[in-house]
Amino acid sequence: VQLQASGGGLVQPGGSLRLSCAASGSFFSINIMGWYRQAPGKQRELVAAITSGGYTNYGDSVKGRFTISRDNKDTVYLQMNNLKPADTAVYYCNLQLASSIVWGQGTLVTVSS
Known about the structure:
The chain is an all-beta fold. It is built from no helices and 11 strands. Strand 9 and strand 10 form a beta hairpin.
């Protein structure tokens, strides 16, 4: 299984970005897909996650600003609104299965004026 993330870039404070992550290969349909981020000098933290049944969970710092969704079993999106400089980080998508976790390559999001 491989994950391909896209959509990062440079945006001004208050702006929006949409990240995408597509999974390829065969995997069990019951799973969790999520986004994590890691800023320089900080630990990787949960941004948002969504189960195959549509249940969502968000990190406290992004609640009300970010929305995670998935349009089928293998693609997940992260809509990021009202971005702040503190959101600057490398964003990673992952796929959590019963016995393994797959990580995609990171995509850099920079929020700066």
